From TrEMBL, chain A:
<comment type="similarity">
    <text>Belongs to the binding-protein-dependent transport system permease family.</text>
</comment>
<dbReference type="InterPro" id="IPR000515">
    <property type="entry name" value="MetI-like"/>
</dbReference>
<feature type="transmembrane region" description="Helical">
    <location>
        <begin position="67"/>
        <end position="97"/>
    </location>
</feature>
<keyword id="KW-0813">Transport</keyword>
<feature type="domain" description="ABC transmembrane type-1">
    <location>
        <begin position="72"/>
        <end position="265"/>
    </location>
</feature>
<dbReference type="InterPro" id="IPR035906">
    <property type="entry name" value="MetI-like_sf"/>
</dbReference>
<keyword id="KW-0812">Transmembrane</keyword>
<feature type="transmembrane region" description="Helical">
    <location>
        <begin position="109"/>
        <end position="132"/>
    </location>
</feature>
<dbReference type="GO" id="GO:0055085">
    <property type="term" value="P:transmembrane transport"/>
</dbReference>
Automatic annotation (TrEMBL), chain B:
<feature type="transmembrane region" description="Helical">
    <location>
        <begin position="304"/>
        <end position="325"/>
    </location>
</feature>
<feature type="transmembrane region" description="Helical">
    <location>
        <begin position="51"/>
        <end position="71"/>
    </location>
</feature>
<dbReference type="GO" id="GO:0055085">
    <property type="term" value="P:transmembrane transport"/>
</dbReference>
<keyword id="KW-0812">Transmembrane</keyword>
<protein>
    <submittedName>
        <fullName>Carbohydrate ABC transporter membrane protein 1 (CUT1 family)</fullName>
    </submittedName>
</protein>
<keyword id="KW-1133">Transmembrane helix</keyword>
<dbReference type="InterPro" id="IPR035906">
    <property type="entry name" value="MetI-like_sf"/>
</dbReference>
<keyword id="KW-0813">Transport</keyword>
<feature type="transmembrane region" description="Helical">
    <location>
        <begin position="157"/>
        <end position="181"/>
    </location>
</feature>
Length: 286, 340
């Protein structure tokens, strides 16, 4: 390939810088505002690009207890328990569906794929959750989303790509089905498990709507639902705790946005190297 | 996530077509040892596979209970549902809810807004990842490329609540951009909460959140383009744009067409949370889409039967569209396989 001219290379560099800046800038200003002192924020009219003096007051304030701390704990708990359950169930069904000639394999696959064609409506799903007595229970944030068809298909595709000779050899050596799953399939599938686990964890962490319709008890709200009150309702989160003098409401609000974002930004680099591989092999194998 | 969901269906379509080309699955490896060729009874086969069926059971139970249970819940659409009486106690009203939809201006307003946003998404969001993928693909340095990819994938993992909050912080009345404009002595811009700017705003948000992630599939396709064709074109004196037009785009055209067809199949699936969050700021006139209409009718007004009818209407149209799109994709996929 011919080398691009300097003008083309410069244009590319500018385009890439703009793209990166457009993504990073909003996150940056939120971080800066959350770390700025109240005088700083007021002097600037509500937002900051570079905090004049750093202050963690906004974070210490909302993490001292009260609604936000509780919501973060709820979200963390739902995310950890939900991801674990989702992974176990997804791996189980994906493995079974990946084995050729398993009893009822085809009907099971069709049963699952049909739900992809016709996802449950908001109102009918609400009735099911209501009918199963999950109101005001954290299980309402987990069970209705236990298995995701896309994740299942990705995982099944990965399991199918494992050479059948490996599995046959293990079977000849006397391994049981569960033994094959545990000792051969799972160790080979770390990448796809990491990716699917990340997808589930992110979905649980980000979920906010369900708590609005399933929870009467607002103290059980996860962080997304609490944050939404500020986003749409204009409700000031600063009112939820005392000590307004040392922090500005904007800093507190931005600190909440940051805390909702942070877990994702933190796990992201560790899983990033897996997910392109996992997604492409899983989804594009054909 | 929607792009990837589509990939899932695409893969199934490919699988099926591949199977057909190869003439069945019979050629995939020798039969496992210990299995006799004659047909066994169902019970014996269940016994033989009992461990596998057992590990599959929790997920299957989930699908049966929540998905098929909810499917059954659609009977609400034909009832004058009263929560206190339940499904069995409520009165049947036949197609009354659907007749009401025909003459309900609020419903048609939601249809109009949904179609408008869907069309905007198709025209402005669909090509954006392709352009970004071409840009990313042209980066020579591995480190730079990986860094830029990491950055542009990140917003996909943020929730809509955070994305909407970020846009408010930057573009809102007291936001960063308006602050800059007033420092420069210019008049402010009104984007957040302005019905006239709602369409461009929601598209900008979607591009910000999903454009990077949606490049993955295009990048995978681009990595398959034959390097020799570039060299041949370059030898013939073709510049960057000519190579793009005559080599790159024809090479990835099957992927583009397939994704476009599948996107058309999900034309009405414009998303819910984004619109649910921002409808209050612009009002129902511009902000109401079909899914928010279902929410406000059912949960805010307690009109569950009518809300379920609207949801069912959208679901059925969605099935028809997806089915048609998959038929087309299937055909395209088959063609691709034959050519290869």
């Amino acid at each position: 390939m011919g080398r691009p001219t300097p003008a083309v290379r410069a244009a590319k560099a500018v385009a890439l810088t703009v793209v990166v800046a457009l993504v990073v800038f909003p996150l940056w200003t939120v971080l800066a505002t959350s770390l700025a002192s109240p005088q700083n924020v007021i002097a600037n009219g509500g937002w900051v690009i570079w905090p004049g003096e750093f202050s963690f007051a906004a974070y210490t304030e909302i993490l001292q207890g009260g609604i936000i701390s509780r919501a973060l704990l709820v979200s963390a708990g739902v995310t950890i328990v939900g991801t674990a359950l989702s992974l176990v169930c997804t791996i189980g069904l994906a493995y079974t569906l990946s084995r050729p000639k398993v009893y009822g394999g085809k009907p099971m696959l069709l049963l699952v794929l049909f739900t992809f064609l016709f996802p449950p409506g908001m109102v009918p799903l609400f009735l099911v959750v209501q009918g199963s007595g999950l109101f005001d229970s954290y299980a309402a944030l987990i069970l209705p989303f236990l298995v995701n068809v896309f994740n299942l298909v990705v995982m099944r595709g990965f399991f199918q790509s494992i050479p059948p000779e490996l599995i046959d050899a293990a079977r000849i050596d006397g391994a049981t089905e569960l033994g094959i799953l545990r000792q051969i399939v799972l160790p080979l599938s770390k990448a796809v498990i990491a990716v699917v686990g990340l997808f589930y964890a992110v979905a649980y962490w980000n979920r906010f709507f369900e708590a609005i319709i399933y929870f009467n008890d607002q103290t059980k709200w996860p962080i997304g639902t609490v944050l939404r009150q500020y986003v749409t309702g204009g409700a000031s989160l600063a009112e939820t705790s005392g000590e307004l003098a040392t922090t500005s409401p904007q800093s507190v609000q931005m600190a909440v946005v940051m805390l909702a974002t942070l877990p994702i930004v933190c796990v992201y680099p560790f899983l990033q190297r897996y997910f392109v591989k996992g997604v492409v092999t899983g989804a594009l194998k054909a | 996530m929607t792009i990837l969901f589509r990939l899932g269906t695409a893969r199934e379509a490919f699988d099926v077509s591949m199977t057909r080309v190869r003439g069945g699955t019979g050629t995939t490896g020798p039969p496992p040892p210990g299995r006799r060729p004659e047909r066994r009874g169902h019970l014996r086969r269940i016994r033989a596979d009992r461990v596998l069926l057992l590990v599959a059971a929790p997920a299957l139970a989930y699908f049966l209970f929540f998905h098929y249970g909810a499917l059954f819940g659609n009977v609400l659409a034909f009832q004058d549902y009263v929560p206190f009486l339940g499904v069995s106690g409520s009165q049947w009203v036949g197609l009354a809810h659907f007749e009401r939809m025909v003459t309900d201006p609020l419903f048609w307003n939601a249809v109009k807004n949904t179609l408008l946003i869907a069309a905007l998404q198709l025209v402005f969001f669909f090509p954006a990842p392709l352009a970004l993928a071409l840009l990313l693909n042209s980066i020579v340095g591995d480190t730079v490329r990986r860094f830029v990819q990491s950055v542009v994938y990140l917003p996909h993992f943020l929730s809509w609540v955070i994305v909407v909050a970020l846009f408010q912080q930057v573009l809102g009345g007291a936001g960063v951009v308006n602050g800059w404009l007033s420092t420069l002595g210019l008049g402010g811009i009104s984007v957040i909460g302005n019905p006239d700017a709602y369409g461009p705003l929601v598209i900008a948000q979607l591009i910000w959140k999903e454009c990077g992630w949606a490049t993955i599939i295009f990048l995978a396709a681009l990595s398959q383009v034959d390097e020799q064709q570039y060299e041949a074109a370059a030898l013939d004196g073709a510049g960057y744009w000519r190579r793009l037009w005559h080599v790159t785009l024809p090479a990835i055209r099957p992927v583009i067409v397939l994704l476009l067809v599948l996107r058309l199949g999900e034309f009405l699936s414009i998303g819910f949370e984004q619109f649910f969050l921002q409808r209050p700021s612009v009002g129902p006139e511009t902000g109401e889409v079909l899914e928010t209409f279902v929410y406000y009718t059912g949960f805010a007004n307690g009109d569950f039967g009518y809300a379920a009818a609207v949801g069912l209407f959208k679901g059925v149209i969605g099935v028809v569209l997806i089915y048609a799109a998959n038929k087309v994709a299937h055909r395209l996929g088959e063609q691709g396989v034959y050519k290869a």
